Amino acid sequence: MKTTTTVTKNQVLTLEIIDLSYEGLGVAKVDGYSLFVSNALPEEKVEAVVTKVGRKYGFAKTLKIIKKSPYRVENFEQKYVQTGIAPLIHLAYPQQLQFKQQQVINNLSKQGLDSGLVQEIIGADEQFHYRNKAQIPVRTVAGQATTGFFRSRSHDLVALDDYLIQDPQIDTLINQIRDLCREIGLKGYDELHNRGEIRHIMVRRAYFTGEMMVVLVVTSKKTKLLPQLLQQLAQKPEITSLYVNVNSKKTNVILGSRFELVAGQEYITDQILGHQFRISPQSFYQVNPVQTQKLYQLALEAAQLQGDELVVDAYCGIGTIGICLANQAREVVGIEVVEAAVHDAQTNAAINNVHNARFIQGKTETVLAQWAQEKQAVDVLIVDPPRKGLDASLIASIRALKPQRIVYISCNPATLARDLQLLEADYQAQKVTPVDMFPLTKHVESVIALERK
Question: Where is the catalytic site (predicted)?
Answer without folding.
Answer: 411
